Amino acid sequence: MIYSEYINCETKGYTDILDITNDIKRVVARSGITNGIATLGVTSSTSAITTLEFEPGLVEDFRKSLEVIAPVKGVYAHDEKWHDGNGFSHIRSSLIGTSKTIPIVSKSLMTGTWQQIILVDFDNRPRSRKVFVQVFGE
Fold this sequence. Notes:
Blueprint: E1 2-11, E2 16-19, H1 21-31, E3 36-42, E4 47-52, H2 56-69, H3 77-82, H4 87-96, E5 99-105, E6 108-109, E7 116-121, E8 127-137
Antiparallel strand pairs: 1-8, 2-7, 3-5, 3-8, 4-7, 5-6
């Protein structure tokens, strides 16, 4: 069986991090699937989906680390061509990735106690993001 659904998220941009774990759990519950996988994907080239312990210190560490890797005020050929100032957000999205697959066992996502599913919006302005969730299984 396959079940699909979108989750809509409003973001602030500039590495806005949202905990979407409970949203994904609700989709899995609605799917009626007991064992399988949930595949999550954000339809954007300037945002990402990953897992993280969603606590203030680690969230700030994550933001700081990304600033070292792909700084907001860096020089990007993308910005020189398009003049939109979001070259950094494309690089960050590419590095983190726009999708994640998580096993489901006995109707539960197999995430760790301190592991939350997060949506990260790297763009340089607020956005409406859609996370596509597809659940496969029996």
